[in-house]
Amino acid sequence: MTIFETRALTKRYGSVAALDDFSIEVQPGVIGLVGANGAGKSTLVKLLLGLIEPTAGAASVLGYDIRREGSHLRQYVGYMPEHDCLPLDMSAVEFVAHMCQMSGLPRAAARERTAETLRHVGLFEERYRAMSGYSTGMRQRAKLAQALVHDPSIVFLDEPTNGLDPGGRDEMLDLIRRTGHGLGISIVMATHLLSEIERVCDQLIVIDAGRLQHYGPLAEFTEATQFLTVEVTADPEPVAAALRRRGLTCAVEGHHISVRVDDGSAPYDLIRDTVVDLRVGLVRMSRRRHTLEDLFSVRQAQASEPVTAREAAS
Amino acid sequence: MVSTPGRAAPSNIYDLGYRHYEGLRLGRRHAMFVLYLESLRGAFGLGRGAAAKVAPAALIFIAAIPALIQLLVSALFPGEAEVFAHHDYYRVISFVLGLYCAAVAPDIAGRDQRNRSLTLYFSRAIERTDYAIAKLAAMASAMLLITLGPQLLLLVANGLVAEDFSTHLRDNWHLLFPIAGSALVGSALIASMGIAIASQTSRRAFATVGIIVAFIVPTAVARILVVGIDTSATHYGVFVSPLDVLGGLSSWMFRQPTPRGGAVAVAGFEGWTYLVVAIVVTAVASLLVLRRYWSVRA
């Protein structure tokens, strides 16, 4: 079962292709949609919601064709835009209930679900206040509430942590994780912040210049490396020297020691015994994993190579 | 004092968290109706602060003043003549109609653009066409309150002037058709023009000024062309003024002569031509509204 699929989906603005021959079949889950600004993330989301018409190609969300069954499909889809979109003179309870009814739910059910949803996003106590008095974090929560209130099967979140301070960002990401993993609602989260993807998502779509670069489980991107990270309570240099004397290849990186694992079996016992012999405390010993930052650094370096080569040639 | 627990009342644990919804989803028509109702409520400031209620309420009251004067006259001087007639009512309150449209239309058509919440509506269970139709319907309904309401009040007031109220109503029940007809056509005309202008901008001030200009300036232009220049060619200028079109339409529907010296009387066109012009203008303005919402960025 797929939550959405596209076949050669294309959106052009004049000669510029915002989305170009984009084909994908996406499985349920919490999906990160990542790419640089202008890569085509918001265009893809707007096409899937029927907010803009595709130039070519086809797409379906939850099995409904986006061109022919748009209004029916949107009863089961939630959307939280990046920009401010709240009528600030209304209270959260009034606005969210109205939006719930706009998704086809009867009035009584809408009122009931509004209270539940505002409790879920942490706005229950403030629900009767005009939203003009809300902080940025509260407004983001109200936006999330209107996207969730009608019990959608899939929710599109466009830069949901935009404008939030670190504390607010943590809370929002926690809320998204609870919604996606706890309630079983599929979430597509468009963002350019890789750290957020790592914290929340289990799948990743990488989009660049309107084209699909990669789609797959997040684990594929963050697989284990051939290095162990060892952290000790004392100066790492003597520990690293001792490990080298015992035949391990290692290097000190700041406060950590990076130990190469050649044959696949990690030398945990040897490292532990070495550290104990030196009467040093062992804080952490773990397999290092790729981060999305590593992946994108490599991609950006690859992308810039031909330019560098041309510059060198000239 | 120590409380002693008696027989424990049966207790329940309620899960107040987010739950999935298995009930009915009523679809596009329901969503359209909800949008219509919310837009209509918003037009009168319902669910908003007190300031939002002042202008529409004040203008509705002003529009009803002639009918209230008629009520007062009938109370003080029973059996005396009519002060205000049905066919002339819209001429008397014509500028109030324009001001009311200028106060209400920017709220109905421009509010979602100002708040940038069009995106939220277009990602709901409606199409863009549904949105435009709901807004037009809400505005037309809001206009009915100020067109139909005072006319019905006047019917009652004129009945009180008569010696016997029930006899008056029985003799004048046929007035209900032109009252309803002129109110419906006039409301549709003014509402479609108001929404067509207000939907072009998210700025309330621009929309308000635009609507006032669209109703007042053509009235002056029509008067200059028809009464001032007064040639058979310039007589067609009466059709540029929506308020004169409404006046001509109203006189024709009530089968009464138009006031002497006015642009409609001088132009001398058949009454049905005003109905045709009103329908054409309403249709064109409605198409402009649809076109606007088909193309507006969400």
User: What would the average pLDDT of chain B be, to the nearest integer?
Assistant: 90
Strand segment tally of chain B: 0
| Largest sheet: spatial strand order of chain A | 6-7-8-3-9-10
Low-pLDDT runs of 5+ residues of chain B are 1-5
Strand content of chain A: 25-35%
Listing every helix as H and every strand as E from the N terminus to the C terminus, the arrangement of chain A reads: EEEHEEHEHHHEHEHEEHEHEEHEH
User: Tally the helices of chain B: what do you get?
Assistant: 12
Instruction: Specify the structural class of chain A.
Output: alpha/beta
What Rg of chain B do the Cα atoms give? 24 Å
- Count of individual beta strands of chain A: 14
Quaternary structure type: heterodimer
Shape descriptor of chain A: globular
Task: Choose one word for the global shape of chain B.
Answer: globular
Whole-angstrom Rg of chain A: 24 Å
CATH architecture annotation of the largest domain in chain A: 3-Layer(aba) Sandwich
Structure in words:
The complex is a heterodimer of chains A (314) and B (298). Chain A has 11 helices and 14 strands. Chain A has 314 residues and is an alpha/beta fold. In chain A, the strands form 3 sheets. In chain A, strands 6-7-8-3-9-10 form a 6-stranded mixed β-sheet, sandwiched between helices. In chain A, helix 3 packs across helix 4. The C terminus of chain A is likely disordered. Chain B has one domain. Chain B has 298 residues and is mainly α. The interface between A and B is large, with 44 and 37 residues.
